[in-house]
Amino acid sequence: MLTLILLLFLGGAIVTWLGNKLSPVVGDLLFLATIIIPAGMFFTGVTVGEVTHLHALGLTLTWGLTPLSYLFSMIVVGLGILLAIYAVPFMKGKQKTGAFYFNFTLSVMSMLGILVSKDWVSFFIFWEIMTWSSYLMVVLNGKDVQRVGIKYFVFSAIGAYAMLMAMVIMNSQLGSFLLADTFNNFQHLTTGNQILIPILLLVAFGVKSAMMPLHVWAPDAYSNAPMAYTGLFSGALSKMGIYGMVLVMVTMINQLPEGTLIRDIIAWIGGFTAAAATLWAITQDDGKKLLAWSSVGQMGYIIVGVAIGTPLAMLAAMFLVVVHAMFKGSLFMVVGAIEKQTGTTNFTEINGLIRKMPWTFISALISVIALAGIPPLAGFVSKWMLYEALIQNNNYILVILLFFASTAGFLYCYKFLHGYFLGQEEPEWAHVKEAPVAMVIPMVLLALGNFVLGTFPQLIFKPIDAAMQFAGYDATGGRLWGESVLFTEWGDVVTLQPILYAVLAVFVFFALFLWFKGTKGTRYVSTKDISTSGELPKEWENLTFKVNFMQPFERAIEPFLKRQIDKYYTAFGNGMEALFEFTRRIHTGNGQTYAIYAILFLALLLLFRVNLFG
Amino acid sequence: MKEIKDKMIAQIKAVFPEAVNKDYDGNRLDLTVNKEAVPSVLLYLKDSMGFRHLSHIAYVDWIEQGEFELVYILWSPLDKVKLYVHTRINRENPVIENIDMIWRQANTYEREIREMLGIEFTGLVAPDEFILEDWDDIPPFRKDFDTLEYVNRTFWHRPGREDAQDVRSTISERSGEEIPDFAKKYSR
Amino acid sequence: MYNDKNSKKIVETIQNWARSHSIWVLAYGTGCGAIEISPTMTSRYDAERLGFRGAATPRQADVMLITGYLTVKTVKRVVRVYEQMQSPKYVVGFGSCTINGGMYYDSYNTINLLDRYLPVDVYINGCMPRPEAVLAGLSKLQQIIREGNANGAEKYLENLAWYKENQRKIAPNWIAKAPDLNW
Amino acid sequence: MVGTPVLFIAIPLLAAFLIPLIGMVWKESVRIIPGLVLAYLLVLAINLLSYVTVNGPIVEVIAGWAPPIGINLVFNAFSGFLVTIMVFMGLLVWLYSYRFKSNVEYEAARKYFLLLMMLITGSVGIVLTGDIFNMFVFIEITSISGYALTAFYTGRDSAEASFKYLMMGSIASVMLLLAIMIIYSQLGTLNMADVASKMHLMDPKLKAVSFILFVIALGIEAEVFPLNGWAPDAYAEAPGPVGAAFSGIVVKAGVYALIRYTYTIFDLSGAFNLLIIIGLITLVVAEVAAIRQEKLKRMLAYSSIGQMGLVLVSFGIGTKEGVFAALFIMLNHAIIKPLLFFSGSYLVYHSKKKMISDVDGIGKLAPLTSILFTLGAFAIVGLPPFAGFWSKLSFLMAAADSNMLLVIGLILSVSVVELVYYMRVVNRIFFFKRTTSLLTRRPTFNAYVVMIILGLMILVIGFYPDSVSMYLHNAANSLFDKSQYIHSVLTATIQ
Amino acid sequence: MEYILIKVLEAMATFVLAFIVGMTYGGVVRKITGRVHNRLGPPWYQNFIDAFKLFSKTRGIHHGAMHFLGAAFLMVTSVVSLMIIPILAPGGHAWYNSWFTNLNFNGDLIFLIYIMTFGPLGMAMGAGQTGNPNSSIGVTRGLSQMVGFEIPWVMALVALMITYKTTSIVDFMNIQRETGTWLMFANPFAFIAAVLAMLGMFRYSPFDIVGAPTELASGPVSENGGKFLFTMMSSGSVFTFAKLVLYVDLFMGGANNLIMLVVKTFLLYMIPVLYGIVSPRYRTEQAVRWFWGWPTFIGLLAILYAVMF
User: Fold this and answer.
1) Domains present along chain C, CATH in parentheses
2) Would you call C2 an interface residue with chain A, using a CB distance cutoff of 8 Å?
3) Do A583 and D232 touch (CB under 8 A)?
4) Is residue B73 domain-shared with residue B126, that is, in the same domain?
5) pLDDT > 90: percent of chain D
6) How far apart (Å, rounded) are the C-alpha atoms in residues D186 and D132?
7) How do B20-23 and A485-487 pair as beta strands?
8) Is residue D169 part of a domain?
9) How far apart are CA E98 and CA E82, in angstroms?
């Protein structure tokens, strides 16, 4: 069944690509069918525990779902379907639609493949397919290809090769490529390898989950990919890193005596990722970039949760994985819709879309509130659990760091909403209409999902519970998750439902109060009609405050902003290129030199003859 | 200072023989040129003689002679010389070359002159209104603009203010000054 | 009950009392009169004890103090600011410039009679009025409000055509371009 | 058995001499005959290979003199495998260059195919022969036809490249002759099997010296750093299919010879380390140089050198898995690199300088060629699910089994470099704006067929690596079975 | 149903209390400011008059749906945090004590921190919808300042959580009642850090950069008049009271009856007020950096203190 699903994706990708050459409509239909039919089969036909074996080159590839991967694959498939529906109108009239569909399908397939892989070889194969299919997406629009694309691919390759190295070492020492075997027999490795392998694997997964020094590809890659794909990129693809990290953390690191230290280091890295990425997000003027940095920051939270590894922290991380996929998917869709309707995503160019794209605004608003972690939406639940877990685990300074990141997150949250939807309505954007229905429905659905999960988190707790039991956490007995009640281990509770009702009641009451109080005396005036020194803004005058939006704050964090990790990498890359150029000049193009090389080589070998051959 | 000014005059005369100069005490130097020669003279002064700064463009309405006068006030920061470049424009067809590509700030002065005196600067690119908004009368700084008549036409007077006196004739009588008839019409 | 005449009157009385004791002032600081507002509001004369308080924007303000001559250019802004204020709203004219043009009575760009363009509730005489006079004028305004006679805003709305005619006379293009009245 | 190994040498050699003769009568024949010959050889090779798999190696004694005195040809799983690859590559090169731009004319075509047949004769001979001096002769045949093919365009640059090749080739000849002299003076025999069985009698000093001389001589042929200076020039200046022939046929022969000496003939313990060291240096320098190239073909040439370095490292591991991996890499390289050369030479067909920047945005104009090039690029950097991945994986597994962590790390880092320069080209092809006004050329039908066959092979091996793994295993085993080689050669009888 | 009705009535009682006390405080602050300025100042009930006047404005404008929702969001924050913060200590025996236990047991400190940011964000939306540049500038300043003072504030709270192993406000009050020591003496550093954070939280000088009179024309509220301003004003009063009660609950052992509550909150309130009256205004980045300076250091000390003792 799994093989069939994956083959359907693969075949569908090719058929879609060919069909799109035939006619765009055929391509659209085939694309939807390619995503939805296997996805439907996945939801209906696949059970946890089913195992498939394949053979290649004397290796056995084992495929099967675990409860942990089931959780992640639900994200992949769900987000895949919604984004596929969204992508069809999004890509209408654009270039390279066929390539987009092809890579999109391949990405979904490879992510599912990673999740069903029970051995490292197929894990790696799908990992690489995921890498290059997403790479082709990143460079699809042809903007800044050499810099962004190569950066992404180099970092991905570093990660992938680290994983490759780790897996061949494990295979040579343990004689098996099976995930389960390598984890169970981890103690049989030599001491050096016991340290080396988790570090290599953490590098591999850290690259994909944009961990701090390895994150530099992420903002550019996220913002460069088509927006219909970035939701999947940020929402699901980066979660593959988290998936791997969970596997490594609960199996390998736990068996290490230095495990606690590594956990702490990773947690701190995660914390710094969250904080630094948030600060960078604040300085961005492009919605895509802002969301991309924000994604990096949110991954930092998840990494913290995974690294701390207490049941509550892991629960928080898993919850945030799901929720992040939802709100970030929705937000990237929002940006995509805006890009589609207006042609730009720069804050300084667009304003006042709220009345033109109300549904987009509503989903953006809900998603942003979830992103900011404000109750009663889903983001709060995960953040609450994360803080509790950290405090109980005595990571006090880390809590402060995350609080700082979270609070600073409000700045970019507001910047995002204000940048697109608020401010003055410009005649330039008077023609803008709401996005097509097929684009609106997925994002509204995802946004509403945040609402539901914020109030009834128990809906998602069941699969998370199964996943965590699989990951080796004892069934925490539902103590952590009751009926919409959050418990700490100290016995404190947050009851979500009455709060939600209170919030709703008060909100509705005051909204109605404001609406009905003196309705006759209150009327709408356009945003051009504001009290600015009595001067009437000209048609072309845009009084909205957009440029240098967060400048006071940026000035406050100026010492930080001077240090860009990207710069160091660029310097390193330039240095390497210079070194390469120097090396290249060994081949002078001069025949005599080559002859001299040959003679010198002969002399050298004769000189070291004894050392070589005894 | 004297030598510097003489040298300057010599230099200017060498290039623009038709320019008329008039010397004052101190660091002031006056120069009168044709309106056609204004841009080239100013450009030369700026580029070759160090008059890098345009302080102001002053304007006078010589209604008796039927001419407007523009005075470009330049300043040489190196030689510390103030140079007044005068030029006269016919009142009937007041058009002169725009010089805001030589000094960017001239744009502002020229906009003011355009509104207040009605001189057209060819090629002046500027937003429509500067000081006067919605003005549809003759430019107000022209001497043939009758302010009181305009005020009476446009605004209302609170009753009791009609006894505004023409004090100028009283003063002139007292001082024995002679005011020509046409001038009486334009001033009170 | 709300429509009952007596209770309506009672409510209005209370409202008028509150309005008279909570006057948020938007000082339109033209001319020389703006300097008189500072002593009026600060320690020496302390208008706040009477309920006066500075307002930052027209949307929040109750009364507009016009503290000197108004040129044609500024009168447009004043009209706009006045229209942006929310009813009930009042206008206080400072000094002779607003009353009859003062020393600028014959300037081609200065209006003479403010009440042709805006409904002025109280004029304060003087050139310029001292803070005592200003306080007296403001007290007069309070008294008018309490009596329910400070209905400049309604007057303006009722006679909008006349006011707009006058305004158009000095600023024809502007009135055509301006957005419709917002209160 | 349908034929004997000697046919592999005799038929192409004969064809090479017959081409001008028949060409006088029927001009088109100069194009057709090589194809027929190569097709026949391919069938023969496959038949023999399957025969060898079952019945053990075939040793053919030539001219009635039994080994160790006479010359013999050995067709076992290892050499047979390489011969099959070579002949197959030769067939594809022929198909591709059937009407390549430089040999549309009869005169050119005659020369071209003559030289190509000579090249194949020599290369196949190197692989098949069991005699050291005979190998020297074949190396000379290969080299001389190689010089001529390099200079085929008769331009100034071609001549220079050819001259460099010639110079290095003569150094190689001298070294080889010296080495052969030393061996003959010591052991009195030149039959490989005989030499191998008597090797322990040799003076260890002279043994080392002669091995070093062999390494240098064959290293020039196998493009080992620092002896590979001629290679990029030759690749870049020779016609596109010749580059493919070099990387698919000639280099394989050189590597084969090197490996044969290391594994079978000499019993030096440090030889494997030497292989690893020179392999690594070759790999690193070549890939690093490739990233700084501005011409497409030079980049591919350096990449080809790098792959050969990887092959040497893999052989140097010295285990069966290592040899398996090395053969796998050679196979993949023989499939992928011609694809890259073929498609690449069409991508820059009309460009004067063959710069990489000339391919900007060509993906829209020549989609199939571009996609095939991309396929090759993805495959050669080892991205799954394409062929290159499996060879890289088996190499890494072999290296890890021998605990060579540093080698693994180094090779993976170099792989990142390799990835960068291939991706830069792919980016340029698909995602750049077309900046030049150069026309694109639609590949000929033959070229399409060749490229698609290669592409399909990449996919087939990628998705189903077991399709070739049996031959690779047999080949690896037969290389390791030194005693069987000696035995089978020395006991060979005249049939 | 009846239960809910009673709950709603009690909530309204709490709201009215908070409204009255908050408004009165506002008036008293104006009075005190006036006295400090050597003038009479307005009467203490001036804020009520202002609110009533705003409420009885007859005409108004709005700029779109978010303009309404912004004010509503603000009110939600004030009211919900008021509902969650315990007004009176659980040990009190006054007859009205049970009126003020609204949602006290349904939230904790972390929840409170987040719900308290809900309002400013909603308000920011409303301000952004108006299209007035001053509003947006004020909002960005306010959010920046929030990032500033949140650090010492959270540090103080975390220090308390570490020591007493709870995040529930009610538990903190119980602890203080049982031990008899106010937390401001149990962990003085935490109290100092929290008070320094409070300076920013109440937005008096030198941290009044949001409204910034004469500079930003009252910032986010500059397009609001009439009922919007009334809602914001009452929300602000309620929120002020709620925050003060939170401080009293956490650091001063809560209050057993309303009189003690008023006394304690008033004393606490005087800290930012009196500090503000005599201070000029910071620039935004100065304010932010100020909070990241000494207050954060003291917050660190508080955590150290909590970890060690």
Assistant:
1) 5-170 (3.40.50.12280)
2) no
3) no
4) yes
5) 0
6) 14
7) unpaired
8) no
9) 15
